[in-house]
Amino acid sequence: MSLQAQKYFKQSENQWAQADSMYWLGNIYYKQQRYKEASEMFSEAQQLFQQIENELGVAECLKRLGDMYQMQDKYDEAIGIISDAQKQFETFGNQLRAAECLQSLGQLYRMQREYDEATEMILKAHKQYEEIGHKQGVADCLSNLGYIYLDQSQYDEAVENFSHAERQYQSIGRIVDVAWSNSMIWLGEIYYKQNRDKEASEMISEAQQLFQQIENELGVAEFLQLQMLADIYRMQGRYDEAVRMISDAQKQFETFGDQLRAAECLRSLGHPYRMQEKYDEATEMTVKAQKQYEEIGYKQGVADCLRNLGDIYENQAQYVEAIDMFSMAQSQYQSIGRIVDAAWSYEYLGSTHRPQGQYGKAKEAFTEALELFKGFPGEKYYIGWTLLEFGHLFFDMEEFAEARRKYEQARDVFDSHGQLQKEVDECSEALAKLDEAEPTASISI
């Protein structure tokens, strides 16, 4: 939109038309990821709607401003503003928009790992969608619940919700095939994690067939499909095909001017390259992604890239560089309130210090991780792994009593989850190895 058009809108005597035009101009900037300009337009539109007492217009602007804060990793501000918008939509009886706000709130709480609050919001949205007969909203909520359970490694509940979402999407028809197939992919990934290979293969095959059916029909959405199809190839170890698919999607997103998704593709490319031990290519893609995230101000993406670079360096035993990356990732995550990710970065630091014999620094990092996890007792998978790695550290230090304590704590945490038997078994193996080591240590003394 030209500066001349903006000037015209601001000089218009019709305040409603002026506010409405600014709102839609804000939407254009938002889609172009020009968040500063979008925020200015939405704020000005909100003020004008307030002046003419158009509270519905105010609510629409609030919702969009909340979306803006979310994109800038300002989750607390986003929650506050979208909550205000939701109340206004409720007041005016606009159940659809109120439900959409509840769904957004659920996604925001999930990003902050506040899973009880996330579940509460999504269930409320689900109920409202059901009341107004909005089937896609119902299906989206089921998918969101699946993600919430998946984040907590509660696979049975995740499978149940993704399965319900899949059936719901299927009943609606082709308009939501994108979301339907996405649920199928997550189901396949969960089945792989549960070692249910036959069911995983069947689900992945169904998703592949669906992609082939809708190829070239969905415009931009097609390239979202390419990303998801690449995930299938990645899970199957077909890395060359995954690279080709993600590269195609990345080029198209660049063409469409969608920097965020283009950056996501670049970061995704780093994974198959790393798995193939093509570390130069993995580094190049991840650094490019980091640069694009920095340009659009997406701090979480920057932190994710730093952690990925740490993985790449660690795989090459370049521990000094890995520690630098994990340290920067930890600081970045903590600065934007991603506390669980910050804690997990400390775990990475501990695991990187350990093979270098830097036991004091490793112990400090694991301790910091567990301290942060105290605020998130539901993160049993991450807490259990941190305790297990801490136990390995004490084993290396031949502090066997403390190693046993950490292994037993890890085993109990995994066991209390109810769906992490593989991890429970790993703790039992560590304890068995410890039983063998202790008599040997006693004899040598």
TrEMBL record:
TPR repeat positions: 19-52, 139-172, 343-376
Any single Pfam family the record assigns to this protein: TPR_12
Keywords: Repeat, TPR repeat
SUPFAM superfamilies referenced in this protein's UniProt entry, alphabetically: TPR-like
InterPro entries found in the cross-reference section: TPR-like_helical_dom_sf, TPR_rpt
Gene3D superfamilies for this protein: Tetratricopeptide repeat domain (1.25.40.10)
Name of the featured protein: TPR-like protein
Species, as recorded: Dendrothele bispora (strain CBS 962.96)
